[in-house]
Amino acid sequence: MHFWEEPIISGEKGSGTVFFSGCSLGCVYCQNFEISHKNEGKLITPERLADIFRELEEKGAHNINLVNPTHYVLAIKEALNIYRPNIPIVYNSSGYESEETLNIAKEFTDIYLLDFKYISPDRSQKYSGAYDYPEFAKNTIIKCVEHQPESIVENGIMKKGVIVRHLILPQATREAALVFDWVKNNASNCFFSLMSQYVPFGKAGEYNEINRKITKREYEKVLNYIMDSSFENIFIQELSSGDEKYIPDFDLTGI
Fold first, then answer.
1. I need a surface site. Which of 73, 180, 237, 245 has the fewest CB within 10 A?
2. Alpha helices by DSSP H, 20-120
3. What is the pTM of this model?
């Protein structure tokens, strides 16, 4: 049960979060490094995954939150054919998606929770090993908004819609502003979530410029830029979110 997502995702009871091992990106600073890069986890069947969905629902989860589901869409679809919870399904993705994968995911997805990490191909290549990420992320956001064009929030909890996240990186305030501008101009009916939780993990220590948390000045520069816009549906993480205590322990709990 995850209590540190956006308020309309976690609510008071928590988001029923399932983390999947491996990743289509190679972000050097990934806070989920153990499972995304090292592929730590436990092999389970679609039947067991369906049971996990049911167990999270029975605990009172507001939704089933599929974290990094891209390369598991067929197995997830199979599990949901076995048991489909009566709560929304969240597709929590890096944004590095093919149209083919998204067409499968739309069959079971109610909420898209998407990263838009970079608008610069050079930065994307350097830190995530994917020069083409920005174009894929743009196409992903546009396609997901087509799949869920309307945001539905009931009693403070999202039932359908799209949230686009951006994590501020050190020395990347202009990047953050450009990402926000693109979302504002191309996906104005979604929610935008500005994240300040960056903590140097994984291989970040090999890159001096990102081997630190963001500064108050960097945070306020991006925050002020966004707040000066006319965009309404915005979530803002407090600067204090950049703390290791908010990162889950990947100890196979619940599997």
1. 245
2. 33-36, 46-58, 73-82, 99-105
3. 0.95
